[in-house]
Amino acid sequence: MPKKPTTTKEAMIEGGFRLVRERGHEALTSRNLAAFLGCSTQPIMYRFPDLDALKDAVYRKADAFHSEYITAGGDLLEIGLRYVRFAEEEPLLFKFLFQSGRFAGLSLEDLVRVPEIAGVLSVVSAEHDLPPEDAAAFFEPLAALVHGYASLIANNAMKYDPDAVRRALLMIAAGPERKRSS
How many CB atoms lie within 10 A of CB 82? Predict the structure, then answer.
């Protein structure tokens, strides 16, 4: 009878997540993961016949971690602030999720409608009493602003300033009417 694998699929996904978190998405290879887990590449290649399947499983774990992190804030302003703070605290995970080519070729409108955004759009819809399509349109400029800040911060091109991010988010959320009356 063959020996039961001691390195489970879940342990491989968790190890891949930790590897990306510590060393970046470029480090996620079967060989690096095997060294990280202290096993041979054989069980990894058995569970994940190609590297894309492993990357996809690790991506789903990282996305769930990110979603839980940003939605813990509740309202839309706090979600935006937490999105940017995530990039500052977890730059390698941020780059894996948003700068590793997974969404290449999509427009901002398309990006706002990917399934990963559904939870945030439901907050927008409820908070502003908007139907889903209007919530997505409302969310687009906020998403662009927040992602821009987060990308600059994750890539060390800008220092994280939570007060500046808050002011910018409040200015956009206020809309053009409030800006004119100020």
Answer: 18
Distance between CA atoms of 96 and 140, rounded to whole angstroms? 22
Nearest to 112 by CA among 138, 83, 84: 138
Angle, in degrees to the nearest 10, between helices 91-98 and 76-89: 110
d(CA 85, CA 66): 11
Domain ranges of the chain: 1-62, 72-182
pTM for this one?
A: 0.85
Q: pLDDT tens-digit profile of 9-40?
A: 999 999 999 999 999 999 999 999 999 999 99
Q: Which CATH class is domain 1-62?
A: mainly alpha
Of residues 20, 45, 17, the one with CA closest to residue 31:
45
Rg (CA), the chain: 19
The CA distance from 108 to 10, in Å, is 33
Dihedral, 12, 15, 16, 20 alpha carbons, nearest 10: 180
Q: Are 48 and 54 in contact (CB under 8 A)?
A: yes
The pair of three-digit structure tokens given for residue 111, joined into one six-digit string = 């990006």
Per residue in 90-149, pLDDT (tens digit) is: 999 999 999 998 888 888 888 888 887 887 888 888 888 888 888 888 888 888 899 999
